[in-house]
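hey m, so remember when u said the tokens were messed up on ur end? i reran from scratch. heres the input so u can diff it against urs
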Amino acid sequence: MKKTPENEFLYVFIAWPIVVVDASHLKSAYTGAFVSANTLDGAANEQLSEVFYTMAKAYTQTDFDKLMKRVEQFDVRVKNYLELVGNVKWARLYTPVPRGLVMMSNIAECINSTLVVARELPIFDFLEQVRLMFARWNCTNRKNASCTFTLLGKKFQEMLVLNESKSGRMTVVPSTDYIYSVSDKGKSYIV
């Protein structure tokens, strides 16, 4: 958070994956803009768009290849473009780093419309509404994910097995439903 020399709020910076930037103009005593950065849904064809997003999130090579064939059926130019760009830049299966949360749609307008009323609030109340909104979304996504069972790609399955074996030597004591004390090799952590 940045303040003026007079200790007045100037801006706060919160980083999420960035592709497209949009702003909601604040209308309270603190005028300005809430700037959000998201990815952009640039596909014109709704069915192609759905296939692309499913393919981008695919964990297995079989699923990815099946979906790529469907993209080719829609428009071979799209398939060629995606291959030219490189799968590593957009497909979860090919990413060189662990990437679980990948935003693959333009949510800037969704954020703007959700925060219409909150934009009238003082800045700290506004930021609290933003925090609560993302907390609700994360909770919903976590609940949906806990009911999803699918085969993972080789890279992610190996990571899961490694983490499972490491976690076996840790001592975990719950403090609340969401906060745990974790001890490992003489070090303690709050998770």
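this time it looks ok to me. The chain has two domains: 2-40+106-151, 46-94. if urs says something different then somethings off w ur setup not the seq
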